């Protein structure tokens, strides 16, 4: 881009020499050229935006990397609309009707750092988020892209149903960055973690030799599942600039058998004295019930 401008002004300089032949024109054109080039350099050094790819339904937090003091005034913008503000120990979120309609109580502001969290993201949340710290004269820009997925795709990825004894894999569904930190929690208890080229898995009695972690993709496989493995699993992918939270729901079903050994034979025998043929229907229906065994 700078080369194109230089080339254009180079022609103008030659034209000035050819038509006017005055040294002053040369000076003016080069002075103008220097100013334009300076503008391009300044433009190139403007605040770059961090790209934040998330999946619909995820929770994303945009980090500020600062600790707020009483003199700070921080304002978050979505496009040109102000959506959140912190001044000292006072914070405001979505004060106008448009913001409230768009985000519907899905924004959360950290009063200590100014970080902004967008919960249960949807495709309309895609766009530029800009943080202006007016007291420090700094800007942070985040380009958030929310990938839309159908309800069926969300169920397939985030809801897992298996039978007891089978294996289930929780796949992050993202390209793992070498600098990312990935943590997976079950009921808010950390069971697996990847930091750089290091990985850890929980080895307590509940999970002993049943967890397998793929260091390349970050996916976690639970082998020989138990009913007690049912519940919510939360994956957090963190970088220096943002973090993404994704939830998985795992349901492990077992086979339940009801054994009736003493009471029902007595009841059936006793009822036959009074009800006669009715007992045959009851007896037949009970014996044909799946999972019900009468000895």
UniProtKB/TrEMBL annotation:
InterPro entries found in the cross-reference section: Ig-like_dom_sf, Ig-like_fold, Ig_sub, Ig_V-set
Gene3D superfamilies: Immunoglobulins
Keyword Ligase: no
Keywords associated with the record: Membrane, Transmembrane, Transmembrane helix
Keyword Membrane among UniProt keywords: yes
Pfam family, one: V-set
Membrane-crossing segments per the record: 25-47
Residue ranges occupied by any Immunoglobulin domain in the UniProt entry: 49-147, 157-253
Entry superkingdom: Eukaryota
PANTHER family linked to this entry: CD48 ANTIGEN-RELATED (PTHR21063:SF4), LFA-3 (PTHR21063)
Protein name, entry field: Immunoglobulin domain-containing protein
């Amino acid at each position: 881009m700078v080369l194109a401008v230089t080339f254009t002004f180079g022609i103008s300089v030659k034209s000035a020499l050819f038509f006017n032949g005055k040294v002053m024109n040369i000076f003016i054109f080069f002075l103008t050229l220097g100013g334009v080039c300076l503008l391009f350099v300044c433009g190139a050094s403007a605040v770059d935006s961090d790209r934040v790819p998330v999946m619909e339904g995820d929770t994303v937090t945009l980090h500020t990397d600062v600790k707020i003091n009483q003199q700070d005034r921080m304002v978050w913008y979505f496009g040109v609309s102000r959506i959140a503000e912190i001044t000292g120990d006072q914070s405001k979120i979505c004060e106008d009707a448009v913001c409230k309609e768009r985000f519907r109580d899905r924004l959360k502001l950290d009063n200590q750092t100014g970080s902004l969290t967008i919960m249960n993201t949807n495709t309309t949340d895609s766009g530029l988020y800009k943080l202006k710290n007016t007291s420090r004269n700094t800007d942070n820009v985040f380009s958030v892209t929310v990938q839309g997925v159908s309800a069926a795709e969300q169920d397939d990825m985030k809801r897992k149903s298996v039978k007891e004894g089978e294996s289930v894999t929780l796949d992050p569904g993202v390209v793992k960055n070498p600098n990312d930190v990935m943590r997976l929690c079950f009921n808010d208890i950390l069971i697996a973690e990847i930091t750089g080229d290091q990985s850890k898995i929980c080895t307590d009695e509940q999970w002993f030799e049943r967890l397998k972690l793929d260091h390349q993709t970050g996916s976690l496989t639970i082998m020989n599942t138990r009913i007690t493995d049912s519940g919510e699993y939360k994956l957090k992918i963190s970088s220096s600039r943002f973090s993404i939270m994704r939830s998985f729901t795992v349901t492990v079903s077992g086979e339940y058998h009801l054994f009736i050994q003493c009471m029902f034979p007595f009841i059936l025998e006793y009822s036959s004295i009074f009800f006669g043929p009715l007992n045959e229907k009851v007896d037949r229906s009970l014996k044909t019930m799946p999972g019900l065994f009468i000895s």
